[in-house]
Amino acid sequence: MVVAWYDGVELWLVQLAYPLQVALVLAVLVPLCWGVARGVDRALDVLAARFARGRDVRGRGERGRAA
To answer: H-type helices in 1-67, by residue range?
Structure first.
């Protein structure tokens, strides 16, 4: 059922004029790629914050002993 739907959408898209194809692809891909990039950025920020917190805690203890 999904394959039949996808085939119908693909056939409809291929039969459109090229400028309309480009506009539709951009209307779908730009927001999709933006959302994925934003999600990856947030995930990396969370990971970086976790690793930075771990270093700060360990770093303060080591510096406190040496000083």
So the answer is: 2-15, 18-66
